[in-house]
Amino acid sequence: MPPDSLFPAALHWTILASSLIISLAALACVVVLLRRRAPAQPLAAPLLDPAPALREGEKNGRSPDEAFMQWSPEMLRQILANELPDTELIVVSNREPYVHEHGEDGIELKVPASGLVSALEPITRTCAGTWIAHGGGSADRETVDRNGHIMVPPDAPAYTLRRVWLSEEEYKGYYLGFANEGLWPLCHIAFTRPIFRAADWECYQAVNRKFAEAVVEEAKTKRPIVLVQDYHFALLPRLIRERLPEAIIITFWHIPWPNSEVFSVCPWREQILDGMLGSSILGFHIQLHCNNFVESVDRFLESRVDREGAAISYGGQTTLVHSYPISIEWPEAEERVQTAAEARRKVLERYGLPPGVKLAVGVERLDYTKGILDRFHALDEFFHQHSDWIGRLVFLQIAAPSRGTLPAYQALHQECLDLVAEINERYGRDGYQPIVLLPEHHDHTDLSELFRAADLCVVSSLHDGMNLVAKEFVAARDDEAGVLVLSAFAGASRELLEALIVNPFDPSGMGEAFFQALTMPPDEQAMRMRRLREVVRSNNVYRWAGSMLMDAARLRQREQFRDLGTSSAPWAATRPPEDNVVRLRA
Ligand code: F6P
Fold first, then answer.
1. For the chain, which terminus, N or C, has the lower number of CB atoms within 10 Å?
2. Among 114, 121, 447, which residue has the most ligand 1 atoms within 8 Å of its CB, making it the best to mutate?
3. Ligand 1 — pocket residues by CB below 6 A?
4. How does DSSP assign 405-455, residue by residue?
């Protein structure tokens, strides 16, 4: 055989071997995923008929926690090592995983309250990648080297954090302005009007260019995998593609994508879509958001949309549009140092609550998309309908300050204070206030204790990409007690079917769900919670990242086939879109 034909033959066998490994891994996943499939459920179904899902949990005598194969850091490492060898991983987000702030005792290290951070941190740690983010802490500049680098986590360095510096003007225009007064309300459709200013758009473009520069600076190879995070960086995929054409760019949009009619009000809609279509893979939490995105592209860009293959061909490049439901890292058993009863005793004591009360909790950033006012209205309805519960239920609401310089957030804060005062006035009495509002940040340990102390957890988002609080509550309840009341408009409602699913726009319906939760017998709570825990444990954050990386590996393989001239359909997607089971079989 002439030497120049030896190489393709060797490559061919490498590809075949590598396909076999992927197929075996996929087969193992299919077994797991087949077990967790559940049909879509109408809005009020769990309130009316909890039985089918509950019976399933009872069927086998084994603990469900043992019955499921786990996606783990090790699995993720294996996917990288076997399927994407020598590939460097670069994560880009606005929010950094560790912030250094000047405090009373010198420089303090803080972990921000962000679902995005809590999901990506374990992944970047596992993959030893580079994380590029805005350095927004008051002491951030003092803690990095001259290239803006610092190894993190500080107590066990595992990856590089590269901080990008923004001027006050850039921060205002890009983050507060275009991202949070424009795109955030546009995508959430929570009836807060988006504000689009040309000056903010200028800043948004400039900052996206600045981050593209940082990606190019950090890339050590021509073919990194770049994980672009969220609505702060809609233009970044295209800018990276222009500079690193062989990179695999996976963009994950952490918030909802609206229907094309709503999206059409954005003055720069074409540029945003064009920017995002620089991605190789574009991920949303749920299929509905993928569909909305595809519909927007179909309407506003000259493109070819393959709905069956979940792919968009535009400007000579193909972008796959898939759903990857984000999740959390399942807690280690050692993290639960106290029993639920101890947690409850401590929480009641800390907040001076009467010993016999039932406890409802809500935990979020103070944001108008979270439906905080709406749950208070539901509580009002609940007390109105069930007055015997006055004095027996306390609602403890953590509302971490967020984007507090923006008028919409300031107004919400005031409205919350006013409504809480009104309800406490109406139903409070000596030594009893029905709502305790804590407008402050709490760390992971405090929250886990609070979740374990609660009788019910309320997640009443008006619209939410996923909502990880719902999953964190479930993960904290190894005592299999407590009830989750969950908005139908949070992405999590597609997976957490045994929660009490509510419409946050209907205070009286949500009030009745509170009643159902508070009067639910312990064995029904346990059956529901067991099933919810199975789902969250098996659909953990490693599965979220692993699914995207497996798809990236398939893309790389296809590129190799294409280079060999053996690909019959360069247009074909990595997998059909229906659900993860089919996708992993592809
Ligand atoms: O996806 C929404 C998100 O970016 C999440 O990371 C997080 O829950 C929240 O918004 C954080 O917002 P910010 O970074 O503006 O505080």
1. N
2. 114
3. 95, 114-116, 230, 254-255, 402-403, 465
4. TSHHHHHHHHHHHHHHHHHHHHH-BTTB-SEEEE-S---HHHHHHHHHH-S
